[in-house]
Specification:
The protein is of the alpha+beta class and about 190 residues long. Helices cover about 25% and strands about 40% of the residues. It has helices at about 35-45, 65-70, 120-135, 150-160; strands spanning about 5, 15-20, 25-30, 80-85, 90-95, 105-115, 140-145, 165-175, 175-189. Strands 1, 2, 3, 4, 5, 6, 7, 8 and 9 form a nine-stranded mixed β-sheet that branches. A hairpin with an 8-residue loop joins strand 5 and strand 6. The longest helix is centred in the C-terminal third of the chain and has 15 residues, at about 120-135. The structure holds coenzyme A. The site of coenzyme A has 20 residues, from strand 6, helix 3 and helix 4.
Length: about 190
């Protein structure tokens, strides 16, 4: 079933201090000087393994490499947010609008909240902000992809209104097993 996103419900005003049951988390735009903290964050979810794309030996080796990568978020149609707590990045989310004329109406998303900081509302707050931002910048179709084995993330995206659009069969090979990539999407009203 197709769903539609109604714009105009942005809740965050960045930088935002959000109260959670574990304390205050600051949600703000990523800065290049976050590279070191972001590397630690990426390593933490790369270590978790099978339901996310990146593996530990694919994590950039140095903060300067990561900083170079992060520069793409300074370009038009892209944005990355970080959630910071306890002097650590505990969440990151990014949006990439289509860069060609024929894809400019689309925006795709990525998100990861650190183990131990999940279920606090951080993911929802960041995604809702990013979805609203994409709509304000002209996106008509919001989409993302997720491993078919990542049932928690699928429920999370469904709670935001995304629905499965299609599957790329066996798009990932994880420890000798083929895993489908699920494309989830929603249209903007
Ligand atoms: C998926 C993820 C981003 C959710 O972030 P989060 O901060 O834990 O989510 P929230 O606390 O904001 O939860 C929002 C909603 O998502 C759903 N949800 C979140 N975690 C869930 C889980 N483990 N199982 C089922 N539903 C879940 C709930 O409906 C929740 O609803 P609520 O707001 O009424 O409580 C986070 O668990 C994560 O980073 N996981 C590992 C990385 C990952 O899988 N990233 C996505 C790759 S495609």
């Amino acid at each position: 079933m197709e769903t539609r996103f109604s714009a105009g419900r942005m809740t965050l005003r960045l930088p935002e201090v959000m109260e959670t049951e574990k304390g205050k988390v600051i949600i703000r735009e990523m800065k290049l000087s976050d590279a070191e903290m972001l590397l630690d964050h990426i390593r933490s979810h790369a270590e978790e393994g099978d339901k996310l794309l990146i593996e530990l030996d694919e994590v950039p080796r140095s903060a300067s490499q990561e900083r170079e990568f992060l520069r793409i978020y300074q370009s038009k149609g892209r944005k990355m947010l970080v959630a910071v707590m306890d002097g650590m990045v505990v969440g990151s989310a990014d949006v990439r609008m289509g860069t060609m004329h024929k894809t400019a109406h689309t925006a795709s998303f990525g998100i990861a909240v650190r183990k131990g900081y999940r279920g606090l509302g951080i993911g929802r707050a960041m995604m809702e902000y990013m979805m609203e931002w994409a709509v304000e910048h002209g996106s008509k179709k919001l989409w993302l992809s997720v491993f078919s084995t990542n049932t928690n993330a699928i429920s999370f995206y469904e709670s935001l209104g995304f629905r499965e659009e299609c599957r790329k069969k066996g798009q990932y090979l994880v420890k000798g097993e083929y895993v489908d990539e699920i494309v989830m999407s929603m249209w903007v009203e």
